Amino acid sequence: xxxxxxxxxxFPSSYNLQGLQQVQAAGVRRIAALYKEQGQAQGIATIDQDxxxxxxxxxxxxxxxxxxxxxxxxxxxxxxxxxxxxxEFRDGNVPAGQGxxxxxxxxxxxxxPTVSERYFRGDSACYEKELLGWLSSKEREGEPGGRIxxxxxxxxxxxxxxxxxxxxxxDWKTIEREPDGTLRQxxxxxxxxxxxxxxxxxxxxxxxxxxxxxxxxxxFADGSDREHFAVVTNLDWEGxxxxxxxxxxxxxxxxxxxxxxxxxxxxxxxxxxxGANAAxxxxxxxxxxxxxxxxxxxxxxxxxxxxxxxxxxxxVHIAGRMNRNNCVMTLRLCAAPxxxxxxxxxxxx
Length: 349
Description:
This protein is α+β, with helices and mostly antiparallel strands. Helix content is 33%, strand content 22%. The strands form three sheets. It has a nine-stranded mixed beta sheet, sandwiched between helices. Strands 2-4-3 form a three-stranded antiparallel beta sheet, with no helix packed on it. A two-stranded antiparallel ribbon has the order 13-14. A hairpin with a 2-residue loop joins strand 13 and strand 14 (328-333). The chain is globular, with a radius of gyration of 23 Å.
């Protein structure tokens, strides 16, 4: 529809973009098979989904919620394998909470058959009726990998805020105490949203409240001594464990956004054409997966967490010269023996 009718909408992928997604999915499954051959079969898959803003001054770019202009693609990461399994390129004026289910479904469809446990983590943009209903549906139990356990940050609506405020003081359990005395606490919240997110035959979802409590004499910027947050889940884990697990996504998907935009060229759009930019971004994601696979399959344990700045020094920025003699190509390297051994391992795999 024209933008005058619908100001923000998600463009469907073209045939060529769908082909790139198929290549990306096949690459993920091939990498998973290589892990299995090395005795590192990935049986657990946690999908971390989040959108990021790519600033752009292109005339075709639209304004985003932070005041600039650009694009706002959504990315889904398989956290245990550090592989991007799906993405959806979007205009900057498309909010992250608009239609997150499509990217989520693509992500789970991409997972290899070796996965026997499935989980999902998301921020409040994933607190959306269709997505939560699909994740909690009993139909997931009959799929390869079984049910999907999830934890999603909940929007603090006035109704949910009131429910969190009703938690009794003795029911708040301390997770940790920060150096300045600030307490991180959790408590079970008795809350049923006015709009049901779960199917009729599913169990009610569980809400956990998180309270950040300042010690006497310290206040937040708004003048209060406490802040409240909430997480909705279908898992029965102990509250502190679940909240810490949910918070771990900040070290996975947000790390991927940083590397994509600042190290792999994904943060600079090359064209005025939406489809060309979408293809560029997906190619950057595929590059991330290849580098992640090399780090996981070929490098030593202490090198596997290397960021791309160090990764280039390990494998890319190496001086060499190609020689040809009697129809034989030879590569002569000016590098340490361990560097040459590292490159040989990559070639073998």
